[in-house]
Write a structure and sequence with these properties.
Blueprint lengths: L1 E6 L4 H11 L4 E7 L10 E2 L11 E4 L6 H11 L3 E3 L6 H10 L4 E4 L5 H17 L4 E8 L9 H13 L5 E4 L12 E8 L5 E8 L4 E8 L3 H14 L5 E3 L1 H7 L1
Parallel strand pairs: 1-2, 1-4, 2-3, 4-5, 5-6, 6-12, 7-9, 8-9
Antiparallel strand pairs: 7-10, 10-11
Bound molecules: 1,4-dihydronicotinamide adenine dinucleotide and ligand LZUJQKHR.
Ligand LZUJQKHR binds next to helix 5.
Length: 251
């Protein structure tokens, strides 16, 4: 049985992980960490360093500013970490990179298998269409999401740039623009509203035709399931930084 500590345990995703783990005999949540220490069915702490329970992995669905402290505490405890939190700054990413030299860290802005398949499809399309098609990304999320654009939209854009001969420059919205779109742009647009779980559309707009490749999350459980699979994967890995690509490759 894999013993889990949930960082962000009182959040929307923390509650999903708790539910899915309770339904799966392979997992047991032994403790939670959150700045909101409202009691749950397991001990809740405000800082990982104070957790007394023995664990095998930390799963993080929290807020970007909380991640460096989490990673440093995981380092002290020699605990593998699954990082799902998005909106991380360059400085926060550097802390993760540094820690991954000593502990295995799994990081993905999107833990769903579907989005990672979408990324493979989009990379193939971008290779073929890069000359004559303008590429734009539209992401849509619920009205409680704090970061924009989504980490998934940025992950998709970065994946596209990996395969292009000439890298695109990201343009976040076009408010105040008073000029024509330049061919080297990749527009990224964020829609917020209601309870939208997470939708991503990649638009290839050409002359007289448009190709759209999209993914729509119907429930947060797809992210929770992926995070649990990532936890099962990461506890057997050597120190390093791992992604969904490593998990999908493993099969
Ligand atoms: N990689 C993926 O597949 C997915 C990633 N996410 C990301 O996960 C994060 C959390 O998403 P939600 O659960 O919807 O958000 P949420 O706001 O419902 O939950 C975040 C939790 O973290 C806690 N928190 C905030 N600041 C903290 C701090 N400094 N120290 C400790 N705890 C702190 C909050 O009290 C809250 O309980 C977001 O960055 C979101 O983009 C969300 C879904 C899927
Ligand atoms: O905040 C969310 O809800 C989500 N955030 C992630 C992101 O920023 O890409 C993943 C998913 O789309 C849900």
């Amino acid at each position: 049985m894999i013993r889990i500590i949930i960082h962000g345990c009182n959040g929307k995703m923390g509650k999903v992980i708790t539910k899915l783990a309770a339904e799966n005999p392979d997992f047991k949540v032994v403790a939670g960490v959150d700045k909101n220490t409202s009691p749950l069915d397991f001990p809740v702490y405000s800082d990982l360093k104070d957790v007394k329970e023995e664990a095998d992995v930390v799963i993080d669905f929290s807020y970007h500013e909380a991640v460096p402290n989490l990673v440093k505490a995981a380092l002290q405890k020699k605990l593998p970490v699954v990082i799902a939190t998005t909106g991380l700054s360059e400085e926060e990413l550097k802390v993760i990179e540094e820690a991954s030299k000593e502990i295995p860290i799994f990081k993905s802005a999107n833990m769903s298998l579907g989005v990672n398949i979408l990324i493979n499809l989009v990379k193939e399309a971008a290779k073929i269409l890069q000359q004559d098609f303008d590429i734009e990304i539209i992401e849509k999320h619920h009205n409680m999401k704090k970061d924009a654009p989504s980490g998934t939209a940025l992950m998709i854009a970065d994946s596209i740039n990996q395969v292009l001969n000439d890298k695109k420059e990201y343009v976040y919205g076009r408010h105040t623009k008073t000029e024509q779109r330049k061919p080297n742009e990749l527009g990224i647009h964020a829609v917020r509203g209601g309870t939208i779980v997470g939708e991503h559309q990649v638009i290839f707009a050409g002359h007289d035709e448009v190709i759209t490749i999209s993914h729509s999350a119907q429930s947060r459980e797809i992210f929770g399931y992926g995070a649990l699979q990532a936890a099962k994967f990461i506890i057997n890995q050597k120190p390093g930084l791992y992604t969904m690509e490593d998990l999908v490759k493993k099969g």
